[in-house]
Amino acid sequence: MKIKKIFINVAVILILSVCCTVVAFAASSVPSLELRETGIKNQYSITFRNWSSEYYGVEFDIAINQSNLNFDMEWLDKQESSYQNVKSEQSGDKTVLKFYYAKRTPISNSNSARIGEITLPNLNSNSKFTTSGNITLVDGNAQKIQFYDMNISVVTIPSGGGNSGESGGSNGSDNFVPMLDWSDLKNQVKVGNDGVKRINISLEKNPYIYTDILQELKNGKIIATFKYKDYQWEIDGSSIKTLPQDRIYYDLSVEKLFLKNISATVDNTDILQFETTFKGSLPFTATLIYPIGIQYADKTVYVSNYNEQNGILSYQTNTKIDENGNIRVSFTNLDKHVVTLRNFWNTQPVAPESNVTENQTTSQPTEQQNVDLIVPGIDSAEIEKVEQSEQIEKEDKSDVESSLTEVPFDSEKKTNILIYIILMVGIALLVFIAIRAVVYFQMIKKIKHRKRKQNIQSKTDINSKK
Fold first, then answer.
1. In whole angstroms, how large is the CA radius of gyration of the chain?
2. Which of 115, 259, 263, 267 has the lowest CB atom count within 10 Å?
3. pTM of the complete model beyond 0.85
């Protein structure tokens, strides 16, 4: 009976260990869906997190608790060979949007995949976003991979942040973020000895640059320095063109990236990878001043743009790190960007310092010099390593980011940690029981051997007496 119990215990522990392994793998591989307000009323960017470049197609759904909801989907992928479709269905008082997207190459070459922006013109302020959790992925061999527990998060501007507070979303925020008002800022404009008007605006509590402020900068030809926690954006009002009427704000928040495939492509000479919350073309020139490190002072660095859809790393410009270890680089188009110490594009470095004015720190490549780099894909095995590196940086975020209305991914990660703990405990129990079983069998064997020896001895004694 004891032997039978041991076998049963071993079998149960083995089954539990296998199940925990499968669950742990699945939990770490399921993409999560993020909807984020873009700054245009009732418009949201659609991005997958925990993505893999193994995926060529995806099918998923988003439900909004509002009937007869109109929508307009602007796909990021403009290739005619790609299949893109959104079907709207009514389910009681809900509008269910079913998305279908497939292409001949991987949807994204990164650990995230932004597929486009959706605008919901008649969205109510109290509408909520949900999902069935069902997601179907298609790999390069046309094999379907299905998950049933995809999470959705919605990032909206917190209450008190201006007109955009009317936009919809799930889990509406009650956190108050002070709205920037030009009437409170205009008295801070200073005129320098050079006759140039300048203003410093703190965005540590509110990362949103409202278009009405940009219009004032344009009208007054004012140079504004927007100060975040540890970096700055400078916008010259004279560079501002016509601002979109439907846009409420621009979010130029910068987030560090740690993509191993990019580092491998540039031979680990990258000293900064980052992306901005706003992605796309700007109607003005925005100059980023970002601390790289005093050890890189006076070094020439090369800035490139990373297109996660096709895996292309394109040269943008080059510049010199200043004596304080800060990089100063101008953008009219924002996405994911990489700063490297090596020149991989055969471009000429910046002109000698004697020929460079105070604000002229970049040079553009000629047409012959524009050579793109191909970045290999990032697979699901690398995703968790990337997310762990990113989490270390995110722990030091400012308070305003924690006030964003977002379902945190931390809960999912805590679940994964718990699963791994259970898995390790299960394996430890399995090993312990296996050892006990081996010891027990050896004891049984010795006892049987001893009894057999005693029986033989007894028979020998009986025969000798006869």
1. 30
2. 267
3. no
